[in-house]
Give the backbone structure.
Amino acid sequence: MGRALLQAGSATATTLAHDLGLTGAGIRKHLDALLAAGLVESSERANYGPAALEGPKGRGRPAKVFMLTKKGRKVFGEQEQSLALTALKFISTHSGPEAVSAFADHIAHTFEQEHSDVTKYSTSQERAMALVDALNVDGYVATVTPGLGDSIQICQHNCPMGDVAIEFPIVCEAETEAFSRLTGVHVTRLATISNGAPVCTTLVPKSRRETK
């Protein structure tokens, strides 16, 4: 579904159902889930893509058209990932591992700056919840689950730079350090998609001050 919208630019539910071989009820169930996740948006008229060229058909309210949000394009797109990997390979070849490390740190610090409001919360768990919201803005499809004791786990179900992290683990390491700075506690990366896990999982404990 996401890939179909990525390729089409925009499309009606009827067009998607036809292209994917689904029933009307089936396609709307998928669209409702994508809308709820913030991956797709709808409008009365497409801004771009083949659906933008279709004029009103018949009487009554025009059919809604659906298109990926910025978050959705990050989730379902592959071009950005491939370009990022190509860029890092070039940097590694021509400038060495120190340059790759500096790039990873730059990405991590940029994320911190863009989501610095996470630090306005007083407890590590409140910050973790705000961090999940920040990750979802950037297309990581993040959720929170209970951890051991009083800790919680941040689960990232998508990694927009997954192929980069496979070849350059320093990207994950820099991201983990950013999570520690934003939450105010030492977090532990338990699993990563780049290492074959279904989700990236990060353990966020309560701070010593909170456990007293």
Notes: DSSP finds ten helices and seven strands in the chain.
